[in-house]
Amino acid sequence: MKIPTAAAARLPVDAGDFQMTVFDAYDGKEHVALTMGDVGGAPPLVRIHSECFTGDVLGSRRCDCGEQLTESLRRIAREGRGVLLYLRQEGRGIGLAEKLRAYNLQDRGFDTVDANLELGHAADARDYGVAARMLRELGVSAVKLMTNNPDKVSALTRLGIQVTARVPLVVPARPENRSYLHAKAKRMGHLFDAPDVVDAKPAVLTALRRAPAPPDPAAELFDLVGRVTARHDRPFVTLSYAQSLDGSSAAAGNRPLAISCGSSRRFTHRLRAAHDAILVGIGTVLADDPRLTVREVDGDDPQPIVVDSRLRFPLDAALLSHPTRKVWIATTPLANPARIRKLEALGAQVFVVPTDASERVDLAALFAVLHVRGLRNLMIEGGGRVLTHVVDQRLFDLLVLTVAPMMVGGTPAFAPHQCAKNRAHTRLERPNYLPVGDDIVIWGSPQAAPCDDGARDA
After folding, report:
1. Active site residues
2. What are the binding positions for GTP in this chain (predicted)?
3. 3-class DSSP state for residue 85?
């Protein structure tokens, strides 16, 4: 069932310029979509926000709604593309008057769930069918969903919208809404990935504020990365990627898959910020359209670099509108000169390096170029061919592997290769194991005898 649009117009707000579209829904309500950029193609950042007059308009501190709305728009603006759906479902679907009656019950000791039940309503009466129809009308079939509510993920999935990632949207708790957040976590299963204590008693909170900050379990790793110097012929290279328990780094057919949890994604962004540059293969760009920023942590964006032997780089890729850097693209003499000129006209810096035996970018030669360009350290995040070449040719100094507790049955992290001697015998010297959220990060330096037959695959 299509859902017709009633009107649309440009809407500049504090976060940026959005396009506002009003839909005439089957429930008789005017639901709204705020969009920025081209939301087709790779899954955009999406927030499904239910109306909260008291929080969104009046700034009530009894909930976190208003702050979540503001933060959602800011994040979409930072991404440069995304969707915020504003659904007219006040009070988790019970309406404004009933929500105020529920507030009175909460003041008498009921939590937010029991107050709704006491009034004869469901704990959560919202309907996400209209959201799924709005997304399809906007040309969106897969999303990165900003939510702490796993029920939203399940609902969209049942309605045919693929959720490739759940992006936490946690705002600081206040004294007035701490019990409310506690009920959402304990009674409704909301996930609070950020280190905010929503279920502690005031005395415990006071003690925590006075207590010294706990030691950073990843401090040794980041201290190491901060102290490294370039080698004589190339930058110090950190190989960083995520995989499932069965070794998959993408879904079947090399489709994008969110493997890491929110905590480990922030860990990865922190690792990016510790490097001068970040490198991926063209396959990663074509599959994920990444921005390669450090938007989830404080720090400087590393220089983005793409290895693209045949220059298939899309002319509308997100990296061409990187907020702080011009993307570098490494290609070969086989690239089309006209394509080079088009990409350079769009702001990319394209440089040609020699090919290897497979007529692909010779990564050793590329790393030498990057060394001459003054890069001290380089982080590599994929894809499979790049990972395979770097490991088999021992072109890395540090491995940081994130393992997620899931089975995928998808595309393996490494590409098939005619010689895998180095891979077969590579071990980490005194490996370190670091829990990050639900994931495990394994890191260390490689110790192995080099493969002596010199096979290559880049």
Report:
1. 124, 126
2. 47-51, 68, 90-92, 112, 147, 152
3. strand
Instruction: State whether 356 and 417 are in the same domain.
Output: yes
Q: Which of 187-196, 197-206, 213-222, 261-270 ranks highest by mean pLDDT?
A: 261-270
Size of the chain, expressed as the number of residues it contains: 458
Q: Is 326 helix (H, G, I), strand (E, B) or coil?
A: coil
Q: What is the CATH number of the domain that holds 63?
A: 3.40.50.10990
Q: Is the peptide bond before 437 cis (omega within 30 degrees of 0)?
A: no
Asked whether the beta carbons of 442 and 433 are under 8 A apart, the reply is yes
Answer yes or no: are the C-beta atoms of 387 and 379 closer than 8 Å.
Answer: no
Statement to judge: residues 258 and 339 lie in one domain: yes
3-class DSSP state for residue 147? coil
C-alpha distance from residue 143 to each of 90, 244, 407 (Å): 24, 21, 21
Give the pLDDT confidence score for residue 451 in this predicted structure. 45
Both tokens assigned to 346 = 């769009």
Mean pLDDT value across residues 3-15: 88
Name which of 193, 263, 250, 192 is nearest 406 in CA terms. 250
What pLDDT was estimated at residue 371?
A: 94
CATH number for position 282: 3.40.430.10
DSSP code, position 260: S
The 8-class DSSP code of residue 57 comes to I
> Which residues neighbour 304 within 8 Å (Cβ) at sequence distance 6 or greater?
277, 278, 280, 292, 319, 322, 325, 327, 328
Convert the pLDDT of each residue in 311-354 to its tens digit.
999 999 999 988 889 999 999 999 999 999 999 999 999 999 99
Neighbours of 221 (CB within 10 A): 22
Give the pLDDT band (50/70/90) at residue 215.
Answer: low
Question: What burial class does residue 252 get, using C-beta atoms within 10 Å of its C-beta: 0-12 exposed, 13-18 middle, 19+ buried?
Answer: exposed
Helix (H, G, I), strand (E, B) or coil at 380: strand
Contacts of 82 (CB under 8 A, 6+ apart): 35, 36, 37, 39, 44, 45, 46, 47, 75, 76
The helix/strand/coil state of 193 is: coil
Kindly state the helix (H) or strand (E) to which residue 280 belongs, with its residue range: strand 277-281
Residues annotated in a binding site for GTP: 47-51, 68, 90-92, 112, 147, 152
Q: Which of 100-109, 198-207, 308-317, 405-414 has the lowest mean pLDDT?
A: 198-207
Residue 5: strand pairing partners: 23
Known binding positions:
47-52, 63, 65, 68, 90-92, 112, 147, 152
Which residues span the domain enclosing 297? 219-447
Q: Output the pTM of the full model.
A: 0.54
Residues 307 and 366 in one domain: yes
Mean pLDDT of 210-224: 69
Structural domain count, the chain: 2
Beta-sheet pairing, 277-281 with 303-307:
parallel
